[in-house]
């Protein structure tokens, strides 16, 4: 049976792998019980993210496998040069765990909102980027990350499972959570927004629009085969993410399609170039338009703008003055 929490999973791995060292920059919320259990293999550097990365690189050069923790915004930005230079260039097996990324920083303002973390980390050669959908997937990812011996950035997410995962976690492999139909819509997402995307899918299905859902979970390496298959069989791909539009999933999917010469309409549901208004998480989602119904509404508006064929009856409805609208059944 798998451990029930991230902390328990990390402890189990550390007990089985004496080279694992757990580090934090005074961010102990998810690992508060580990210090007495790991002893010298637990290192808290205080609020010194740059120092932590430099120390982690030094430990990795000496055969250790550091798993470091900090608030995502300070980890990827304050310590960016150290991650790039000390960890990335040397291609060291350091795992970077970023807490409260994206909307999960809910009540915090722009200084604490990590909305460019994926873009920054995927730009570093050798760096893997993993974005678990929930705590279950986070725990499942840990052994694969450590086994990879590659520098890895993880968007920490220990929320309850959004779906029943049927595919074992594999770096670089997406999970088809819900099937769609040829000529329909495919929703691609990562992290806790999978929950809202599944709710959006239900609304779309009720509106007569078949929608597949891909849980990307690994953004670097990306599952190119899954992206290309979705592009070939869908009229519309929708990238849903709590990230700026630049450099995140939308950019990754667009790059993948261009590189392989596969064309498909691609919609971005992201924060564009704005920070979000701080509030409780549910209120943030409602205000920013990231609830299931709001996401579905944006997709339906995109389909209408496309003058799309109904994916069910292949019928166009002409709109006076030009254009067309998705036909109802």
Question: Would you mind describing this structure in some detail?
Answer:
By secondary structure, this protein is an alpha/beta fold. The protein folds into 2 domains: 6-155, Rossmann fold (3-Layer(aba) Sandwich), CATH 3.40.50.970; 175-316, Rossmann fold, CATH 3.40.50. 37% of the residues lie in helices and 19% in strands. The protein contains 12 helices and 14 strands. The chain has helices at 6-16, 35-38, 49-61, 72-78, 80-88, 117-122, 135-148, 194-206, 224-233, 249-260, 281-288, 292-306, and strands spanning 20-24, 42-44, 65-71, 95-99, 128-130, 152-155, 175-178, 184-189, 211-215, 218-220, 234-240, 265-269, 316-318, 324-326. The strands form 3 sheets. The protein has a 7-stranded mixed sheet with strand order 2-1-3-4-6-5-10, sandwiched between helices. Strands 7-9-8-11-12 form a 5-stranded mixed sheet, sandwiched between helices. A two-stranded antiparallel sheet has the order 13-14. A hairpin with a 5-residue loop joins strand 13 (316-318) and strand 14 (324-326). Helix 1 packs parallel to helix 7 (135-148) and helix 8 (194-206) crosses helix 12 (292-306). It is globular and about 60 Å long. Residues 308-329 have low confidence and may be disordered.
In short:
With 329 residues, the protein is an alpha/beta fold.
Layout: helices, strands, pairs:
Layout: H1 6-16, E1 20-24, H2 35-38, E2 42-44, H3 49-61, E3 65-71, H4 72-78, H5 80-88, E4 95-99, H6 117-122, E5 128-130, H7 135-148, E6 152-155, E7 175-178, E8 184-189, H8 194-206, E9 211-215, E10 218-220, H9 224-233, E11 234-240, H10 249-260, E12 265-269, H11 281-288, H12 292-306, E13 316-318, E14 324-326
Parallel strand pairs: 1-2, 1-3, 3-4, 4-6, 5-6, 8-9, 8-11, 11-12
Antiparallel strand pairs: 5-10, 7-9, 13-14
Helix pairs in contact: 1-7, 3-5, 8-12, 9-10
